[in-house]
Design a protein that fits this description.
Length: about 170
């Protein structure tokens, strides 16, 4: 199974290198030009289905790329929502905070998060062979680890990457 994974566009927290999680911030730039390479990747792959996080930044990303990919409908999935960073949402991403959030009770546990990711792919594995997923960085990072995918370990805002499952 292959998917194209598109990370949402830039937000103020992305620019400031802060944990965003479930904070529902809008995109800073709504210009399609910021997604030029991603749109080309999506069109080269000829997607026929779009699955999207229900968070505003992901939905705005779909609205930006939609006219350029000839698909007018996306299906929102709560399983795609970003990891809940609890009290760390809005805090700077640094080594200390990354370590602390893994033991903080307000944060969605990594095991629960990975279970949600596995459920998402299990639910959608037979839907299509050409699917675009619009989501978030932690979801992408943990999916590549969970399924031992040979992709790079992180994804930038506005970037599209092909995920190929064995």
């Amino acid at each position: 199974m292959k998917y194209i994974y598109l990370r949402h566009g830039l937000t103020s927290f992305s620019v400031e290198n802060k944990f965003m999680g479930r904070a529902n911030l809008p995109l800073l730039n709504l210009e399609p030009e910021t997604f030029k390479k991603a749109i080309q990747c999506i069109n080269d792959y000829s997607v026929d289905t779009v699955l999207c996080s229900p968070l505003l930044r992901a939905k705005q990303t779909f609205d930006i790329v939609r006219p350029h990919i000839n698909l007018n409908k996306c299906t929102e999935s709560n399983l795609l929502i970003e990891r809940d960073f609890g009290l760390f949402e809005g805090k700077k991403k640094n080594e200390r905070n990354r370590a602390l959030l893994e033991v903080d009770k307000s944060v969605e546990s990594i095991n629960l998060f990975r279970s949600r990711i596995a459920s998402f792919f299990e639910l959608h594995e037979k839907e299509t062979n050409r699917c675009l997923i619009i989501g978030h960085s932690a979801f992408y990072r943990e999916a590549t680890k969970l399924f031992n995918l040979k992709n790079k370990s992180s994804i930038n805002c506005c970037e599209a990457v092909i995920l190929e499952f064995p």
